[in-house]
Amino acid sequence: MILDRSHRQWLLVSGILLGLGTVCYLWYASGPAGVSGGSLPGLIFAIVGTSMMIFAGLLSARRQVPTWRIGSAQFWLKGHIWLGLLSVAFILFHAGFRWGGPVEIGLWLSTAVIVLSGVVGLGLQQVLPRLLTTRVPRETFIDQLPYQCASMQFLADKIVSEAAGKLDTSARRAIGVAEDVCRQRKWLKRESDLQKIVSAIYENPPQLVPEDSGPAKPKPAARKPGTPSPLLAAQLAAKPAAPERPVIRTEELKTFYLKTVRPFLANSSRGNSPLAQADRRRAAFEQMRVDLPSELHGVLDQLEQFCYERSQLHRLRTIHRWLHGWQYLHVPVSASLLVLFIIHVVISLRVVPWEW
Amino acid sequence: MNRLPSSRELSERVEIDFPRRSRRRLRRRLAWVALLAVFATAAWIGSEWRSGQHRVFAAGGVSTAHRMIENDCGACHTTWAPLERLANWVDPGSIRSIDNSKCLACHDRALHHRNQVPGHGHDGLSCAECHREHRHHERLARVEDRQCKRCHSDLKTTSGSTSTFVHSLTTFDADGQHPHPEFALKRLLLESAAGSRPGPEHGVWKVGDAGEAGESGSGFRDRARLRFNHSAHLKVEKNSKGELVVGLRNSDGRTVDFSKNCNSCHEPDESGGYMRPVQFESHCRACHPLLFDNRNEPGHQVPHVTADLVRGWLTEKYTLGALEQAGSRSPGPGTDVTGRDSRRPFPGPAERRTLDPAMARDVLGRVKVAEAVVQQHVHTLFGHEAKGGCRYCHEVTDAGSNWRVEPPEIPDRWMIHSRFRHGSHRQMRCEECHGDVASSRRTSDVLMPAIATCRGCHSPRPTAKRFARAAWGARSDCVECHVYHGRDGSKSSPITTPPRSTAEDGSISGR
User: Fold this and answer.
1) Which residues in chain B touch residue A348, judged by CB atoms under 8 angstroms apart?
2) Which residues does chain B have within 8 Å of residue A98's beta carbon, measured at their own beta carbons?
3) What per-residue string of b and e applies to B151-160 under the rule 16 or more CB within 10 Å gives b?
4) How many CA atoms lie within 13 A of B45 on its CB side?
5) Dihedral sign (CA B424, B426, B430, B432)
6) In chain A, which residue's Cα lies nearest the Cα of B98?
7) Mind telling me how many Å the CA of A356 is from chain B's nearest CA?
8) Which chain B positions have a beta carbon within 8 Å of A301's beta carbon?
């Protein structure tokens, strides 16, 4: 929620309500009876403040029914912000600016945490989305981070294996996404192709397709313009395979990849890895370019690009944590506040608690 | 290198079926954490409730005196009162969460003043309106000034008269709109002091009287019937070496300085609040002996009691002396050579020995002489002239053999509408408040401080102006000096009209 000119009406209404409430409170507090939450004016302040808090809390319920025509999401979010802030003032008027007992202190602390975390969250929302756009051009869905890391690993495995031979490594996670990656890139003509691709990359690949399964029957798909005809495709497939390139000091490449690059591409890698820092990453790859022959520089370029993307995902995760992390305080404490609020209301109205 | 990805590249980085899969991982996590928070909160409240700790629901800590019932909310409160108040849309005065009867079950009630308007008294007020509980106050009696101002800002009485007390009083600050007036006895003493003359019901008339006009200001004076000269007792002179050359002489004949030792006579009581009455035996007798026959009975003194008892004491002493003298002059049968009675006594009461008429007349004559001596002003003791005798300090009604000493009538308390703790002011010197003591020659001098002395330290909360000159410090709220209940002298009153001290108890009282 960006604070812009569209909030002016809310600001104006909130200011008027706050002013009215303050005038009423000053009149009520200057009376001979003083301030008490149990007096009639005190109870009215409580009702008004509570109504505002309930409206603010209903935002989460509103999100459960996005299709209902009960006001736009913007309206509810603005109400959540402004009435939520205003409710604190009215609850202060209700309490006469006193802490109260243990339950009330719990309510105050909860309210303070909720308001502070909400204000911090709102402030972060003014800054971080822009920061995300400028600093993380390869932004993606946060839920897709594991998939993207695994797919980058698989693609990097494939590139390195083509240049340096099969990799002797455990690649369960990468193989898990191999089918999706291959399908997206249309590498699978038949079902057994996946097994072939994986076998070409890893020393001991798992059995992905049952051995007795026959070749996948190509689906009679409608030919798109610009795609080769089935006949031409068969001729292209029948072309003799290109001769293997000579392997030149590929062991160094493989070692560098398996020990340095591949762990960094993993979803579990740390953001403080040397490859996450641009200058150190550049220096590492420059050193490898010096050490390795020019035939492998193309592979190094692709690996460096993967590392660059992975470092962006690290940054994305960090920003995402800041952008949404405050909710881990805001939401649970709101739930606690609700419980304490119900207890406070019931006991305050009854005055004498029931015996257990 | 580091080029921006194309849209095709970006789309290839996302799972094929991602749009169809749930993306609510954050919400699920939040829901679980929220549920955990709810359980934790409920567990906390539930455990307190189950263990009977109902104070967890209280709106704040109770006062020290109510700690024993802090978990028994029903001891003071009635149920559902706020809800009824809300449902009926009425103010707290109509439906109360605290019934006065529950307070009075433990606490005695005492009226503030006989003349108070009922609506401003207990009939129209709830105890809890002034004594606000659950506010972590140590003492509920320390009520806010606003509760006092409810009546004293526009004082009304049942008689319609407000001449006894100030009609409008809202602050202790001299610069306030309706400031506390000068103390009543000072208003009477100082003609220039602002404020009305206290009415006849004012307590100031219990400690002083009008006296003769022109004697001291408007004539108000200490009504005590005792002669005492503070100036004479405190007078000291020193030579160039700092040695004391003029002062009081003690029993050793040495000159002593009492000017810096007020507590030689004025000793604080157990509570440290007020001064004990000055005792003749411990404070006066050493220098003011009650000699009666220093030639025959050197150093012997009569007790500091009423005239009748002094007469009886003297008669007994002289009678016993005469009998002893008579017995030693004519030893009866049965006495041995040493004069001891060697006879075996008969069972039953001892034989009563009586004075013959001649001896009795002699005894009465000696008693009369001694009584006359006792009443004198000057005696000779320890080789120097000592000022003593009843008449030296007391008013003695001389009616021949029925002479008697008038009670001194020194009040225990001077400002009976307020309370004071000398102990709290122990860092100050006595003369800072009782400044006129050193020059006071007469008992009728009223040596109490003016309100300006108190305001020197007890000032209201600082405004910006006051803060700048730092003229604020000690509290100045009403209950700092005054009490509400029983100020009129009912049984639970912490302040009662002081009893008149008399010579019978051997004290001449202090202030």
Assistant:
1) 59, 82
2) 60, 135
3) bbbebebeee
4) 24
5) negative
6) A351
7) 6
8) 1
Q: Nearest by CB to A351, which of B29, B34, B73?
A: B73
Touching B: A residues 212-251, CB under 8 Å: none
| Closest-CA distance of chain A to residue B288, Å | 58
Interface size between A and B, measured as CB pairs under 8 A: 159
Residue A4 C-alpha from the chain's centroid = 25
Q: Give the C-alpha separation, B164 to B115, whole Å.
A: 10
Residue tagged 């000579």 (tokens): A246
A179 part of contact set with chain B, CB < 8 Å = no
Nearest CB to B13: which of A151, A308, A324? A151
Radius of gyration in angstroms for the set of CA atoms belonging to chain A, rounded to a whole number:
31
Among A87-91, A280-284, B39-43, B73-77, name the one with the lowest average pLDDT.
B73-77
User: Any residues with CB less than 8 A from the CB of B9 and at least 6 apart, and which?
Assistant: none
pLDDT digits (tens, 9 = 90+) for A151-183: 899 999 999 999 888 888 877 777 778 888 888
Q: What is the DSSP letter of B203?
A: G
DSSP B93: T
Q: Is A183 on the interface with B (CB under 8 A)?
A: yes
Mean pLDDT (chain B) is 78
User: What's the DSSP call for residue B268?
Assistant: B
**What's the whole-model pTM score?**
0.68
DSSP code, position A271: T
Determine which of A60, A351, A354, A355 to mutate to test the interface with B (most B C-beta atoms within 10 Å): A351
- For testing contact with chain A, the best of B30, B32, B73 (most A CBs within 10 A): B30
The answer, yes or no, to whether residue A245 has pLDDT greater than 60, is no
In 3D space, the residue among A242, A244, A196, A200 whose CA is nearest the CA of residue A216 turns out to be A196
Least confident of B185-199, B218-232, B278-292: B185-199
Closest by CA position to B62, among listed B72, B52, B70? B70
User: For residue B496, what pLDDT is reported?
Assistant: 32
Chain-chain contact of B85 with A43 (C-beta, under 8 angstroms): yes
What are the backbone dihedrals phi and psi of residue A320, each rounded to the nearest 5 degrees, phi first? Answer: -65, -40
Q: Are B55 and A102 in contact (CB under 8 A)?
A: yes
The residues near A98 (Cβ < 8 Å, ≥ 6 apart) are B60, B135
Nearest to B213 by CA among B224, B201, B221: B221
Q: How many CB atoms are closer than 10 A to CB A275?
A: 24
Q: What is the ipTM of this complex?
A: 0.77
Q: What is the pLDDT of residues B43-88, one digit of tens each?
A: 999 999 888 888 888 888 889 889 999 888 888 998 888 888 888 8
Which amino acid would we find at residue B336? D
Question: In angstroms, rounded to a whole number, what is the distance separating the alpha carbons of residues A184 and A182?
Answer: 5
Encoded tokens for B21: 């899969």
Rounded Cα distance, A34 and B343, in Å = 90
Q: Tell whether A297 is within 8 A of chain B (Cβ).
A: no
As a dihedral over the C-alpha atoms of residue B85, residue B88, residue B91, residue B93, rounded to 10 degrees, the angle is -70
Measure in Å the smallest separation between the Cα of A13 and chain B Cα atoms: 27
Residue pair B290/B304 in contact by the 8 Å Cβ criterion: yes
- Tell me B276's DSSP state: P
Planar angle of CA A22, A28, A31, nearest 5 degrees: 140
Q: Find which of B57, B62, B72 to mutate to test the A interface (most A CBs within 10 Å of its CB).
A: B57
User: Cβ contacts of residue A28 below 8 Å, gap of 6+?
Assistant: A35, A39, A41, A42
CA gap B426, B159 in Å, rounded: 42
Residue of chain B whose Cα is closest to the Cα of A307? B2
CB contact under 8 A, B86 and A334: no
Of B1, B48, B77, nearest to A305 by CB-CB distance is B1
